[in-house]
UniProtKB/TrEMBL annotation:
Keywords: Kinase, Transferase. Belongs to the polyphosphate kinase 2 (PPK2) family. Class I subfamily. It holds the Pfam family PPK2. Its EC number is 2.7.4.-. It comes from Paraburkholderia kirstenboschensis. This is ADP/GDP-polyphosphate phosphotransferase. Residues 17-242 form the Polyphosphate kinase-2-related domain. The lineage of its organism: Bacteria, Pseudomonadati, Pseudomonadota, Betaproteobacteria, Burkholderiales.
């Protein structure tokens, strides 16, 4: 990560993309995401996008930027909770498989089966042998996923130590974000280099030609979102689907209808 880290170290608040610039670039990309959605539905394509990265790397904001203007029935976000006792007894990837896309769906994993390579390995939720076995098996699983016709894209958001600290500290003082800061986040924060070693082992084992990892430098969250959306739009061979011109029909005539004299309970207009 030396090359990426050197790029991050030079990012200051002054250098970061302004919100005005960000929205100017994001809007046409979101139009393209709608075109992608229509193509997926019409052609029955299946797309799976995996987002991984350290706490505070910007996964949630990136996923929101992708999904905020499209249909949740086509773009499904999967963020699984901690496994139940029953799920712990299953084959590890078993609980993820039912969430893979069917025809006409785009599934986005906000963390995925790679939990075993990251948080579970670092925090001791699995044994070292289980982690090593997972890394040996995951290319086989992903080959099967790709061979089934699913387009699989895997993104790692790379954040610097300094920027992660700034973001996590912001969660402590911001009442809108405090829910994002869990006890596990605090424990994992202190184990930066354990996560680095786990990340490196994950890349070495699962960065394959049929399911490669793509790294997005995310110290500037807005630039990272734009770069990722632009990248996935380029990697998916979608086409614009012809749609019929929409014209609003004429409204019916009232035919004697009158508004009722009913004591509606209106919301107070405080603004």
């Amino acid at each position: 990560m030396t090359k990426h880290q050197s790029k991050q170290d030079g990012v200051s608040e002054r250098d970061k993309l302004s919100n005005k610039q960000y929205l100017r670039e994001l809007t046409p990309m979101q139009v393209e995401l709608v075109k992608l959605q229509e193509w997926v539905v019409q052609t029955g394509q299946k797309i799976c996008i995996v987002f991984e990265g350290r706490d505070g790397a910007g996964k949630g904001g990136t996923i929101k930027a992708i999904t905020e203007r499209v249909s949740p029935r086509v773009f499904r976000v999967v963020a699984l909770p901690a496994p139940t006792d029953r799920e712990k007894s299953q084959m590890y990837v078993q609980r993820y498989l039912p969430h893979l896309p069917a025809a006409g769906e785009i599934v986005i994993f906000d963390r995925s089966w790679y939990n075993r390579a990251g948080v579970e390995r670092v925090m001791g939720f699995c044994t070292e042998n289980e982690a090593v076995s997972f890394l040996k098996a995951v290319p086989l699983v992903e080959r099967a996923i790709v061979h089934s016709g699913i387009i699989l894209l895997k993104y790692w958001l790379e954040v610097s130590e300094e920027e992660q600290t700034r973001r996590l500290e912001g969660r402590i003082t911001d009442g809108r974000k405090v829910w994002k800061l869990s006890g596990m986040d605090l424990k994992s924060y202190s184990r930066w280099y354990d996560y680095s070693r786990a990340r490196d082992a994950m890349f070495e084992a699962s960065d394959t030609d049929f399911a490669p990892w793509f790294v997005a430098v995310s110290d500037d969250k807005r630039r990272a979102r734009l770069n990722i959306i632009s990248d996935l739009l380029q990697k998916i061979p979608y086409q614009t689907v012809a749609r019929e011109k929409v014209t609003l029909p004429a409204r019916q005539k009232p035919n004697g209808y009158k508004e009722p004299d009913y004591p509606f309970k209106y919301v107070a207009e405080r603004f």
